[in-house]
Specification:
The protein has a four-stranded antiparallel sheet with strand order 2-1-5-6. A two-stranded parallel ribbon has the order 3-4. The longest helix is centred in the C-terminal third of the chain and has 22 residues, at about 330-350. By secondary structure, the chain is α+β, with helices and mostly antiparallel strands. The protein is about 50% helix and about 5% strand. The chain has two domains: about 5-145 and about 240-275 and about 295-380, no CATH class; about 150-235, no CATH class.
């Protein structure tokens, strides 16, 4: 997903869930900041490196793909962008090394979605925003894993998108190129993706790189053949998935506010979104690379307030200038605390399942200890 959904659509969902305009701004800022909180930025503001929620392209290009490098990559991407759906799924006659990666395949409504919401409940608005980013991405990034893997994330080049017109739905072959500087062209079904690399752990095989930005566009419905599925056809219906993601975020934030009981997977606030269903689905189905303007206009109509554009620098000076003992009380201090807590939870669950791809016991306990220390500090 992109800024249009993580920032502006998250604002809309938060407002429908009952948050005030100011609270919605904190939540949607945090949701979008997940895509920008890199080690480079954290080093700049002298914040804990453990709080990294993404990796810049230059960081990834400089990252080793030995076991240590792979574990660091997987801790970040599996925690925040490709939350595993089923850490215990089994397939007959597959080696453990393969299954460890297969079990990291992302998808909605898994047990970790429930744990993500449960961890954020009673915590900061920043924690709520992080949880919304993670939950939304389980829909957009379904069928890909947050670890470099040719055996899991590779695809064939046979992508077709379904184009709906007056005469119904037709299929159109998608053409891929490898130029990141050239915008995608949905009118001609020309998109960019990562170069094919035969090395199992090559960084080009991380996440949905082989599918380019197709998972990030709400308007597209397409079919393709992934490696993990033995190159059988999978149909990805983004408009439907994004609608479910939006309604699940409303439900999740109602839960975080204490308006509902236990969080249940497979539950969506369709009733709350129903009066706006046509408006929302029109935005989701509109063939455009970014829907920010449409979501922003909708959000401002909902609340009657102005939604400020996202500014990556907005809270940095506050954090930098705060005394060491007060950094936890700043906006970014609360964000980094929540990010470390969430990463610690996910990595602990992955490790506890017998999977070492996010690190070994001493690393996991180090993250968990940092998580506990941060939340103890936040209580004072």
């Amino acid at each position: 997903m992109q800024e249009d959904f993580h920032y502006y659509a998250t604002y809309c969902a938060a407002y429908m869930a009952g948050y005030t305009h100011s609270e919605c701004m904190d939540i949607c800022y945090s949701a979008q900041f997940v895509d920008l909180c890199s080690m480079t930025l954290l080093h700049k503001i002298k914040a804990p490196a453990e709080a990294a929620t993404t990796q810049l392209q230059l960081e990834l290009m400089d990252t080793r793909t030995d076991i240590v490098g792979l574990q660091n990559i997987t801790r970040i991407w599996s925690s925040f962008h490709f939350l595993p759906r089923d850490l215990n799924v089994t397939i007959d006659k597959r080696p453990k090394a393969y299954m460890n990666k297969y079990r990291l395949i992302c998808g909605p409504d898994g047990e970790l979605v429930k744990k993500t919401a449960g961890l954020a409940k009673g915590k900061s608005l920043q924690a709520a925003g992080i949880a919304m980013h993670v939950i939304a991405d389980t829909w957009a990034h379904a069928y890909f894993a947050g670890t470099p893997s040719l055996a899991i994330n590779n695809t064939t080049d046979d992508f077709y998108e379904y184009i709906t017109g007056e005469d119904g739905s037709t299929e159109r072959k998608i053409s891929f190129r490898h130029s990141t500087s050239t915008p995608d062209d949905p009118d001609k079904s020309i998109y960019s993706n990562s170069l094919f690399q035969r090395n199992e752990n090559n960084i080009m095989n991380l996440g949905h790189g082989r599918a380019g930005h197709l998972p990030d566009y709400s308007f597209i419905k397409y079919r393709y053949m992934p490696a993990w599925g033995e190159y059988r056809i999978v149909i990805k219906d983004n408009p439907s998935d994004y609608w479910n993601a939006f309604c699940q975020m409303i439900y999740a934030m109602k839960y975080l506010r204490g308006d509902t009981g236990d969080f249940r997977t497979g539950t969506y606030a369709y009733d709350i979104a129903a009066p706006y269903e046509n408006r929302i689905k029109n935005i989701l189905n509109k063939r455009q690379l970014k829907a920010s303007d449409d979501w922003k206009a909708f959000g401002e109509e909902l609340s009657g307030e102005r939604i400020e554009d996202f500014d990556i620098n907005r809270y940095q000076n506050e954090y930098i200038s705060a005394p060491d003992g007060s950094k936890h009380d700043t906006f970014l201090g609360k964000f980094t605390d929540a990010a470390i807590a969430h990463k610690g939870m996910v990595c602990h669950e992955i490790f506890s399942s017998g999977n070492k791809l996010t690190g070994f016991e001493k690393i996991i306990h180090s993250v968990k200890d940092k998580q506990n220390e941060l939340f103890k500090n936040s209580l004072h």
